[in-house]
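Input set for joint prediction.
Command: fold jointly, output tokens.
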Amino acid sequence: MRRLMNLAPRPGIRLLLGLLPFVLIAFIYVAASAERRAVNPDDKLLPPVSEMVAAANRLAFEPDRRSGEYVLWSDTAASLRRLALGLGIATAIGLTVGLGIGVLPLVGATLAPLVGVLSMVPPMAILPILFIVFGLGELSKVVLILIGVTPFLIRDLALTISALPPEQLVKAQTLGASTWQVAIRVVLPQIMPRLIEAVRLSIGPAFLFLIAAEAIASDVGLGYRIFLVRRYLAMDIILPYVAWITLLAFLMDWALATLARRAFGFAYVTERR
Amino acid sequence: MTKILKLLTVAIAAAALLTAAPLSPAFAAKKKEFNIAWTIYVGWMPWPYAAEQGIIKKWADKYGITINVTQINDYVESINQYTAGKFDGVTLTNMDALTIPAAGGVDTTVLVVGSFSNGNDGIVLKKGKTLADIKGQSVNLVELSVSHYLLARGLESVKLTEKDIKVVNTSDADIVGAFKSKDSTAVVTWNPQLMEVKAELGATPVFDSSKIPGEIIDTLSVNTETLRDNPDFGKALVGAWYEIMAIMANAEKGKAAREAMAKTSGTDLAGYEAQLKTTRMFYDPADAVKFVSSGDLPKIMDMVRTFSFQHNLLGDNVKSKDAVGIGFPGGKTLGSAKNVKLRFDATYMKMAADKKL
Amino acid sequence: MSSTIAFRDVWVEYGDQIVLERLNLTIAAGTFVSLVGPSGAGKSTMLRMLLGQERPSRGEIMLDGVPMGHEPGPDRGVVFQRYSVFPHLTVLGNVLLGFEFAASPVTGRLFGVARRNAIAECHRLIDEVGLSEHRDKYPYALSGGMQQRLAIAQAIAKKPKVLLLDEPFGALDPGTRAQMHELIRFLWRDCGMTVVMVTHDIKEAFALGTRLIALDKKRVDPQAPGRFGAIITYDLDLTRDSAVPVLGFTKPLSKAGSAPHQGAQEGVRP
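tokens >
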């Protein structure tokens, strides 16, 4: 018998093993749902799949009785817009400030401690201040994502820059590069792959902050809908929404990963296949 | 290989059953240990006080049972947990009892009618001096809650409808902060947030629940089957409740109790008493029995269920407001008599009034 | 194009630890200096001072009679043992970079005719170091020797007056190293710049240098190891046909090594 650590599954088995936990969860869900329904035919906690499909259909393809909107799509559009704005601005700030801190010791000395402290502030705790300063509209939702994600991006990029071999920076200077040229031609392209990775890692927290912001004060959005219908335990709506959010996040992650590999192939050569 | 697969299948099936087991609801039957959940609200603070003072334990011991009293931080979550079967009883309003557990098929009995909101819920405007000025504004409130109901009732009174305003769902925990923002010009909320909101500069209270007395009722409700199988559970709870009520009603002895309740709810005595003023407490069980047995209650519940149905709170597939039946003392029902899921029951409170506990 | 380098009373001290003691040295233009000595004797410190990465605590370093700038600049090219090339640029991109820095302060990029002219110049350089077949490859696809060839091409692209080599061949296998020796000797003759090479390999030092400078700590205080710094212990002129005080070594032929360089024979990493 070989050691367990040397037993690798064949591709077919690998796929099966990967699917197994999903099948298992689905099985547990269906069993538990059926059992609850047997006891209480109106149970809302674990609705059967058929009801979730019906609810999802209704939300996606039938106009809402009161507003006449296609709820799922209007929620998705609103949420994605906030998310894109939040993550986009966070990325721009993270890149600029991260570059500043990483490349310029003077900026690093001035801002690095501040960013270090800011990154420890739990954004949810200062929500009332955000409301007063940024209002209750779209801005405060975007700002919540910004505050939640930007310090991480800045620190991650500054760390990535500090890990660049100093030889490269000296070499660039011997080639006549100015500070600016070093920043845009030597440092920037080398941190771009890591920036994309960091944004990928931020998708989860960004969604978290988005949903929290929408739960607190909103009239449209994925988080708004979930917390609204939670008031009457409409799990047949909440569960499809959760699945939809998961799918959206997964697709974004996949798109960014693909982008990084296409655009910055040099950074992925040595990684373990 | 096939052997391994077989073993694996068995193991998975076993794991699945074990995992699924805790998800199945508690079966009602004769039992000895009960759980009730409470959330912070002026009318419900006697519950934690009764637990702290050992009064719950005293009454539970009398009937040979155990009752655990648990605080849940989030109101809706506490009701959801109750609906899912994790608690045998929960503190909630009449409207939420109808739209969450009852609409979710969990037959629920209103065991204790402790109080109703008599100004504890209100509408406050920054722009405008009367409720009619709310037209065209966007209103921050907890959507689909009693606030929403109060707003609907208020709008009716000035011949407006929800189409004349814009509703922005806002968490009750953040509504005070939200009202400080310049975007927010109108809110509907309950106490203690209501007091904070009214204290805001330029804020005008334009409508409150004292104009619709008895429509927002604070209850302790329990699972009907559990109560049917364990009447001692109901007796112990009602007994403990009215022992506390007697203490609270007494100006001298009640002060210490009110002070402790104030502390537990995060305010001071003055703040708590201000909230009590806008709460119509039924200190005397006879009053509560009278309220529950009166002909007004079905009328009130009819308005509540109409609102709930119009806002899809009874479920998206429900075709009529009669789908969920509501039962009243004396066998009167509202809606489907075959599907009564919410019951107002004066039996136990009557026992307290008759000193038979 | 080459420069005279002069160290005038240069001391390097870190706190109370003396690294280099009153260094006085003049290197004539066009000299190929091999700098040897045990670890910790200040070879790298000397090289870093020449680069402008480090400043002497006392004394000064003159380049063609003018005090040297205290930061790295385009008058001094460098090849390190590792990390000399930019992993995010192709071979051509690496060599082109120096031209782009010089011509385009804002974007750091060249376009159109200027770019085509610079690329033509780069192609010549890449041919010279024998990488023409690998022009469009990224450094990760090159062997260690090829990466160093690229580093050299990149360093000499803008014709620095001084070329600094910090153990440039230390990580290469012996066969590759011999090829690199030929290449660097050829380029030095061709461009005529002043070269300072730090090496651990005495054979290499003799094989390439026209002057060999050995640094070492002569005086050691057992109670205070940092009390005395390193000084120049040997300064050998390797151009004269005199006997060389190292056994088993053949002095390089002064007229040899001018054969033009063919493509590198090293394999390409998959």
